[in-house]
């Protein structure tokens, strides 16, 4: 059973995700609070204050897209030392905004959140760009767009650099559709997907995988198959009745399009119930 404070965080996360203009920083901090029980309201406020402080260090209106990109990267990358290394992919803290602000290390997408939130507070035309396999930050309209790579300390990217990042991740050429701004909920879902992937590679961390799935299910748009993943996790964690009920509910959804798969899921639900005997 969830504790009252946990239920309140979940309610707040769902409410913010469904608001007209979701607050990216707040959503990321609420994700962090799921992972870190010590992150209370004061801790979240402190993280927001740090973002405000960093924004206050930026020069006033440094110019167009390139001026903003250079100014933010000089501050966060060069002066403050935000960036990443391959080892950061092995740490859950690299996906938690409050820890990234503290350690100044993280995954590309969380470092990008820092760039976005600091620059946005200072009035920059900034947004996330969800390149396949490597999240970056964009400044300016499409005709003057400047991309930076926060994981590489805020290095300004040429068109060839972006093409190499995409080719390295997918083997495919860069498509212009990859350069459109990512909205806050896309960013949060990608962060949760990263956390799920981190936890799924560590069988002892089904607790992390479960809350990441459950937060994903609170987003307005999510894959229906997440319900089956949650059901499997419940069974793995010993909640056979809860997992079986979740499987049966998912099978009802699947039955309309794939009766064979639905029956296979129902068999798994029966097997989960049988484990109680």
TrEMBL record:
Pfam families: TPR_9, Transglut_core2. Residues 69-193 form the Protein SirB1 N-terminal domain. InterPro entries: SirB1_N. Belongs to the UPF0162 family. PANTHER family: F-BOX ONLY PROTEIN 21, SI:DKEY-261L7.2. This is Transglutaminase-like domain-containing protein.
């Amino acid at each position: 059973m969830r504790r009252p404070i946990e239920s309140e965080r979940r309610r707040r996360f769902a409410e913010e995700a469904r608001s007209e203009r979701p607050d990216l920083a707040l959503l990321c901090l609420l994700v962090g609070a799921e992972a870190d029980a010590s992150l209370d309201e004061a801790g979240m406020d402190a993280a927001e204050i740090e973002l405000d402080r960093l924004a206050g260090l930026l020069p006033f209106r440094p110019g167009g897209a390139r001026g903003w990109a250079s100014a933010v990267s000089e501050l966060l990358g060069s002066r403050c030392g935000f960036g990443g290394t391959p080892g950061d992919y092995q740490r859950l803290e690299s996906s938690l905004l409050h820890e990234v602000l503290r350690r100044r290390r993280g995954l590309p997408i969380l470092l990008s959140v820092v760039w976005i939130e600091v620059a946005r507070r200072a009035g920059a035309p900034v947004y996330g760009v969800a390149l396949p396999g490597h999240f970056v930050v964009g400044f300016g309209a499409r005709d003057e767009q400047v991309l930076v790579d926060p994981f590489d300390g805020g290095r300004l990217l040429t068109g060839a650099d972006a093409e190499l990042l995409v080719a390295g991740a997918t083997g495919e050429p860069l498509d212009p559709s990859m350069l459109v701004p990512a909205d806050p909920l896309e960013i949060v879902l990608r962060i949760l997907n990263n956390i799920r992937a981190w936890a799924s590679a560590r069988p002892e961390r089904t607790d992390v995988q479960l809350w990441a799935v459950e937060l994903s299910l609170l987003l307005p748009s999510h894959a229906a198959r997440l319900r089956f993943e949650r059901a499997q996790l419940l069974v793995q964690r010993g909640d056979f009745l809860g997992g079986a009920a979740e499987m049966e509910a998912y099978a009802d959804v699947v039955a309309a399009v794939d009766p064979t798969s639905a029956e296979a899921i129902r068999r798994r639900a029966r097997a989960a119930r049988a484990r109680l005997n």
